[in-house]
Sequence to fold (383 residues):
Amino acid sequence: MTTEPLHTDPRPALPRSTTLLLALGGATVTAFGIAAIRGVFTPVFLAFVLTLCVHPLRSRLHSHGVQRGLATGTSIAAVFALLVAFAAVLVLALAQFSSLLPQFAPQLDRAGVAVSELLASVGFGTDQTDAVQEGFTPGRILEFINGLLGSITSMVSSLVVVLTMLILMAVDGSRVPALLTYLNPHRPELVAALVGFGRGVRRYMVATTVLGVAQGAFNWLVLVLLQVPGALLWGLLSFICSFIPNVGYFIAIIPPLFFGFLSGGWPTAIGVIIVYGVINSAIQSVIQPRYIGNAVSLSETLTFVSVLFWALVLGPVGAVLAVPLTLLVRAVLLDADPSTTWRRALTGDRANLEEILRDEDDEIRTRRARWGPRRPSPREGQA
Fold:
């Protein structure tokens, strides 16, 4: 009598440690390569995300009988209008802030002296305290903001790249449905991964934009009522930081808190903390997870790490594009390969964990009921 051999998994071509080292090495080289071409990669990917967001508009116009060229031109015009409006508000806010900042030179000087004295009292040297005190001047603050935004030349060149790529991608996007239809019989998993990535990015960007506009407008109105200088700029900063998960709130609150303290003292600063805390806690803890969490299916830890990683690779814009970039990496590495789709659960997708989590909750409730207050027996009641 012959016995059938036991089923064993095929041995991998390379040891697991070698595979991990090769993967880490490839990821490191890729990250350094992207960082080296960030000046091109960032505006191109931003244009790609914007094209994804307006693609439903072109598809809807085309389905209603509008010609392909006219529908594509309409989508391009819509994105152009959004970019022009955003740039106009940004220039207006910076101009308002630049005119208001010199008015607070005495307050900034006193704040610099107080901070330098505090640092000197805890043991810092004269050179460090003098450098800190020199930083509390209108010129240094404007230099810092200009450093974050970049030079005018880099901003104009990036805007030209974004606008050019928007036109080209919008034209190519009109053929994407036919391309996906052609690829579906050959690579159905890849098509499903790309479609899911586009849908998730659109839901995330649209929902975040709507909530960010509401958050920025309300913050701007409250700052105007509190008479905080540069309220328009800080409302715009609040809108931009709404695209940065987890840490955007802490970035957005620092400037209005600082200038609110300079203009109105502690009462204004406390008012800024309370208002920002209530608004951002309600949006980021209640509203945003409900409408955005299901779209991205990323864990809080992975989202925070992705913000740090892409900000390190691409600069400040990388923090804004962290979620779409992470979704693209997951779509290419996990969703497109049927043998690795189970790893989505490791990234925060709870679709396959709902039943297990529900059973755990039922078990916890059962144990709670079992170990609840013990009812007295009849004999104990009579006694």
